[in-house]
Write a structure and sequence with these properties.
Layout lengths: L17 E12 L6 H17 L4 E3 L17 H16 L8 E10 L2 E10 L2 E7 L11 H4 L9 E5 L2 H4 L7 E5 L2 E3 L4 E5 L10 H7 L4 E6 L8 H15 L2 E6 L1 E2 L7 E2 L3 E4 L2 E5 L9 E9 L1 H8 L2 H13 L4 E3 L11 E5 L8 H7 L12 H20 L3 E5 L4 H22 L3 H10 L15 H8 L6 H8 E7 L6 H14 L2 E6 L1 H14 L15 H29 L6 E3 L5 H6 L20 H11 L25 H6 L17 H5 L3 H13 L4 H11 L7 H18 L34 H29 L1
Parallel strand pairs: 1-2, 2-3, 8-17, 9-10, 10-11, 19-20, 19-22, 20-21
Antiparallel strand pairs: 1-16, 1-18, 3-4, 4-5, 6-7, 8-9, 11-14, 12-13, 14-15
Helix pairs in contact: 1-2, 10-11, 10-19, 11-14, 11-15, 11-19, 16-17, 23-24, 24-25
C-alpha cells in the first residue's frame, strides 16, 4: 500500500499533501539611460513593492542601474563606477538587508573586460555576479561593441569589488563571478539574460537538465509589431520541454532612444502562464508582477518525462556547472518559500499555502497589431515629451493618411494620459501640469500672476483627452496655391478639431515666390522655372516641388518656437514627422522637408499597417460582450470618424498644380504600389536578398501570374535603382519609433553605404540573363504545345 498522499500523479498537477511555494516578483522599470539618481529611486521603489507583497525573489530588467541604451557610454569607466556607487547607495538605504534575494542588472568590468551582468544580493551580501554569455548583435543591438561574452564553460572566478562597495554596508572584498547555479534550501536558481533565451542552444536547457527549479531572465527587449508572441512561445516551449518555472522581467518605456521597451513580465511554469505584466502604460514608472509558484509541480512534471531524466543523468556527469550555496547571516541555506505537508502542524498551513498558489491564466493578453500601434508609439511619445520638458507637439497636418496617423497617435497618447489621471495616478497629472506650465516655475517675487490665478492653474485637472490635446498639440495645414485642394484642407481641419488640437491654416506660396526671386537675382537670364504640367523640365519640376516641401519644414520649426509665445504661453514645441517606413525605403521624400523633424512616431511602420491602424482608430469602443470580430484587448478604436474620408482619399504630396487632366498621386510618382514596396522591404532586410535573389524569390511568390519574368525583372531593377539613388536620404532620417523589422534606419538598424552605383551593372546583367532564359524557355514550351496540337 502506498503512503497516504502519494501515488500516481498526472503530469503537471499538484500532488496531494505536498506544497513548496515560493513568491517571486518581476520588476518592469521605466529607466532613463545615465539617470543614475532616477534609476536608483525606481529600483528602490520596486524592491519595496516586491517586499510589501511578500516576494522572496525580485528580478529586474537588463542593465537597469545605468539604462540599457547607454551605448558608447559603456566605453566610459564612469558608467561602471556610477553603477557600483548606485549599488552601494541602495545597500546603505537598507534595500538589501532582508532575506529577499535581489537580482539587479548592471555593467561590470573584470580583468579589463566589460560584461553585461546580473548581480544577486541577499542580506547585504553579494552572492554572485553572473555575466551574459550570449550577446545580442543583430537588428538594433550592438552588444559586442561594448561587452565581452563570458564563455559558458569558464565556470567562476574571484571578482574584487570596487572600493566604494567594500566601504559600504556590503562589507565584502570579493565575490564569485561567472556561470553558476545558486543553491537554496528549497530550490535551485539559475540566470539567463535577454538574448540567451533566443539563441539555438539556450542556457536554460542545461540548467533544466541540472535540476534547476527557477530560471530568471532580466531582459531589455524592445517592442516590434507581433514580437510578443515570439517571446511567449520561446518561454512556454522551454518550460514544456525541460519543466520548471521561468521568471521574465523586461524594461518598459523609452530610455532615451528610438526603442520602446514593452515590459510584459511573464511567470511561466511547465508551459503554463501564471502571471503577465503590463506591456504598454503611461501610468507608472514601476510595475511589479507577482506569482506564487508551487515548485512541487516542477518535480512532479519532470518525473513524468523519462527522456529528460536520461539526458539529465548524462549531462550532469559530462558538463558540471558550479553551485554556490546561498546562506543567511547565521550560515544556514536561504529558503525562498515554505514547505507544507497535510497534517504537519509544525509547518505553514498546507491549506493556506494551497490557496496562495497562482493558477494558469485563462487568457493571455495579446494585442492586435492595430492596438500595438495605438499604444507603443503613444507611450514612447509621452516618455519623450515629459523627459525633454518641451511644451508639446507641432505637426504639419496635410489631410493625408500619414500625417493623420501621427495625429492619431498623439490623440491616443492624450487618451492614455487622461485615463491614468482618472485612475488617480498623481505622477502623470504632475508631469502634465509641469509640461503645460500649470505649476509654479518661478519664485513668487517673479511670478506676475495673482494668487488666485496661480492657485487655479496649479489645481487644473483636464476634463477630457481633447482638453489635454488643446494644451499639448498644435496642427498646421501648410497649403500652397493651385497645389492644395479644398478637400485636404477640410479633412485636416476636421480631424484636428475632433482630436481637440489647436489648428492653423497657412499658405506657404508667398515664401516660395520670395525664394524664387532670390534665384532670379542670381540668374536673371534663365527665366522662371515651370512645373511639368506647364511645359517645364524634370529639373524645374523637382526644384519647384522640393522648395515647397523645404519651406514647410522651415515654417514648422518657426511655428514650433513661436506658437506658444503667440498664445501667451511659455516653452517650445517638438516638431513631429510623418514619413512611413515604405516611403523611406523608396526614398520618396525630400531631404530636409517635413519628413525632417525632431521625432517621427510612424517612421518604422509600414503603409499597410498604418492604414489598418487608421481603420481601427476610426471605430468606437465596443462592449466586451458585443461579439464583434477583432475587437482585441481594447475592445475597439478611438472613435475618430473623420479618418474614414482620409482613408478613402488617394495619397498625394500636393506639390504640383492640379489641372483638369492631372492630379499628383504617390503611387504613380513612386512607380510602384505600397504593397509592392512592403514586399521589397521585407525581402531586402528580413530575407537578406540582393537584386538577383529578390528577382528569383518574386518569380516564385508571384507565380502563377500575368506578370512576365521580364516585367518582374524591370520592377526589381527599378526598385534597386531608386533605392541606390536615394539611400543618402537615410543618413538624415528623423529619429523614428522602431516597429517594423525591415526598417531602413541608417543610424542603428540598417547599416549600409549611402553612395551606390545605381546601375547595379553586374547584378542587373544576371537578372536580364535569367529573364531572357526564362522567356525563351516559355516561348519554346508554347511552340512545342502548339506543334502537338496541330
Amino acid at each position: 500500500m502506498l503512503p497516504q498522499g502519494r501515488g500516481r500523479i498526472a503530469r503537471g498537477r499538484p500532488m496531494e499533501g505536498v506544497s513548496r511555494v515560493v513568491s517571486v516578483a518581476a520588476a518592469s522599470l521605466n529607466q532613463w539611460s545615465l539617470d543614475f539618481t532616477g534609476n536608483a529611486s525606481r529600483i528602490e521603489q520596486s524592491i519595496a513593492e516586491a517586499r510589501a507583497v511578500g516576494a522572496r525573489y525580485r528580478v529586474g530588467g537588463e542593465l537597469e542601474v545605468c539604462g540599457y541604451g547607454c551605448e558608447d557610454h559603456f566605453f566610459e569607466p564612469d558608467t561602471f563606477t556610477h553603477s557600483w556607487e548606485v549599488l552601494a547607495a541602495l545597500c546603505e538605504r537598507g534595500c538589501f538587508s532582508s532575506d529577499m534575494l535581489i537580482d539587479i542588472g548592471m555593467p561590470v568590468m573584470h580583468r579589463g573586460a566589460s560584461y553585461n551582468a546580473r548581480v544577486l544580493i541577499v542580506q547585504n551580501k553579494i552572492q554572485l555576479i553572473r555575466p551574459k554569455m550570449w550577446l545580442a548583435d543583430d537588428g538594433n543591438y550592438r552588444e559586442s561593441r561594448w561587452f565581452r561574452a563570458w564563455p559558458s564553460d569558464r565556470g567562476t572566478e574571484s571578482f574584487l569589488l570596487p572600493a566604494c562597495v567594500q566601504s559600504s554596508a556590503f562589507e565584502q572584498d570579493s565575490v564569485p563571478i561567472g556561470n553558476a547555479i545558486l543553491q537554496l534550501k528549497d530550490c535551485a536558481l539559475a540566470i539567463e539574460t535577454c538574448e540567451e533565451l533566443f539563441v539555438p542552444q539556450p542556457p536554460h536547457v542545461q540548467y533544466g537538465l541540472h535540476g534547476v527549479d527557477l530560471i530568471s531572465n532580466g531582459s531589455g527587449s524592445h517592442h516590434s509589431l507581433r514580437k510578443l508572441s515570439q517571446r511567449l512561445d520561446l518561454i512556454t516551449s522551454a518550460t514544456k520541454r525541460i519543466g520548471g518555472a521561468y521568471i521574465y522581467a523586461n524594461l518598459i518605456g523609452c530610455d532615451g532612444g528610438r526603442l520602446y521597451y514593452d515590459g510584459c513580465n511573464l511567470v511561466v511554469i511547465n508551459g503554463h502562464v501564471l502571471a503577465q505584466g503590463e506591456q504598454f502604460s503611461v501610468e507608472r514608472e514601476c510595475f511589479i508582477t507577482v506569482a506564487h509558484i508551487d515548485l512541487a509541480e516542477v518535480e512532479r512534471y519532470r518525473s513524468g518525462v523519462v527522456s529528460r531524466g536520461a539526458q539529465a543523468a548524462l549531462l550532469s556527469a559530462q558538463q558540471p556547472i558550479p553551485r554556490i550555496n546561498v546562506c543567511t547571516a547565521d550560515g544556514a541555506l536561504l529558503a525562498l518559500g515554505n514547505i507544507a505537508r497535510a497534517g504537519d502542524t509544525t509547518s505553514v498551513s498546507f491549506l493556506r499555502q494551497a490557496e496562495r498558489v497562482s493558477r494558469p491564466l485563462k487568457k493571455i493578453r495579446l494585442y492586435l497589431p492595430e492596438e500595438e500601434i495605438a499604444l507603443g508609439p503613444a507611450c514612447w511619445l509621452w516618455d519623450y515629451l515629459r523627459r525633454s520638458n518641451m511644451r508639446g507637439f507641432l505637426l504639419p497636418l496635410s489631410g493625408g493618411a500619414d500625417s493623420a496617423a501621427t495625429a492619431t497617435l498623439v490623440a491616443s497618447m492624450c487618451s492614455l494620459v487622461f485615463a491614468a489621471i482618472e485612475k488617480g495616478h498623481l505622477g502623470v497629472l504632475h508631469d502634465l501640469r509641469r509640461l503645460v506650465r500649470k505649476t509654479a516655475t518661478l519664485p513668487p517675487n517673479q511670478d506676475k500672476r495673482t494668487i488666485e490665478e496661480r492657485q487655479a492653474m496649479e489645481e487644473w485637472v483636464p476634463r477630457s483627452p481633447q482638453e489635454i490635446a488643446e494644451e499639448l498639440f498644435v496642427t498646421v495645414y501648410l497649403g500652397s496655391e493651385n497645389m492644395s485642394s479644398t478637400e485636404t484642407r477640410n479633412r485636416a481641419r476636421r480631424l484636428s478639431q475632433q482630436i481637440g488640437a489647436f489648428h492653423l491654416d497657412l499658405n506657404i506660396w508667398p515664401g516660395v515666390e520670395a525664394l524664387l526671386q532670390v534665384f532670379a537675382s542670381a540668374f536673371p537670364a534663365a527665366g522662371a522655372p515651370k512645373f511639368k504640367v506647364h511645359g517645364g523640365s524634370h529639373e524645374e519640376n523637382q526644384a519647384l516641388q522640393n522648395i515647397q516641401a523645404r519651406i514647410r519644414m522651415v515654417v514648422a520649426y518657426l511655428l514650433a518656437q513661436l506658437t506658444p509665445w503667440a498664445r501667451g504661453q511659455t516653452g517650445t514645441l517638438l516638431v513631429l514627422g510623418s514619413a512611413n517606413v515604405d516611403e523611406a525605403l523608396r526614398g520618396y521624400l525630400t531631404k530636409y522637408d517635413c519628413s525632417s523633424a525632431d521625432i517621427n512616431p510612424i517612421g518604422g511602420i509600414s503603409k499597410t499597417d498604418l492604414k489598418a491602424f487608421l481603420r481601427w482608430a476610426s471605430t468606437k469602443r465596443l462592449e466586451r460582450d458585443s461579439g464583434a470580430l477583432r475587437t482585441g484587448v481594447l475592445g475597439g478604436g478611438l472613435g475618430l470618424t473623420e479618418l474614414v474620408q482620409i482613408l478613402e482619399a488617394p495619397p498625394t504630396a500636393e506639390l504640383e498644380p492640379i489641372t483638369a487632366t492631372y492630379t499628383q498621386t504617390d503611387e504613380i510618382d513612386m512607380g510602384m504600389t505600397y504593397e509592392e514596396l512592403s514586399m521589397y522591404g521585407k525581402l531586402r532586410k528580413i530575407m537578406h536578398s540582393g537584386p538577383v535573389s529578390m528577382y528569383f524569390q518574386l518569380l516564385r511568390d508571384w507565380a502563377p501570374s500575368s506578370i512576365s519574368p521580364r516585367m518582374i525583372a524591370e520592377k526589381v531593377k527599378f526598385f534597386f535603382r531608386m533605392y541606390g539613388i536615394n539611400r543618402h536620404k537615410m543618413t538624415t532620417l528623423t529619429p523614428s519609433y522602431h516597429a517594423e523589422s525591415y526598417s531602413p534606419d541608417d543610424n542603428r538598424f540598417d547599416l549600409r553605404q549611402f553612395l551606390y552605383n545605381p546601375g547595379w551593372t553586374w547584378q542587373f546583367a544576371r537578372i536580364d540573363l535569367a529573364a531572357k532564359a526564362l522567356e525563351e524557355e516559355h516561348d519554346q514550351s508554347q511552340a512545342e504545345r502548339q506543334k502537338k496540337s496541330e
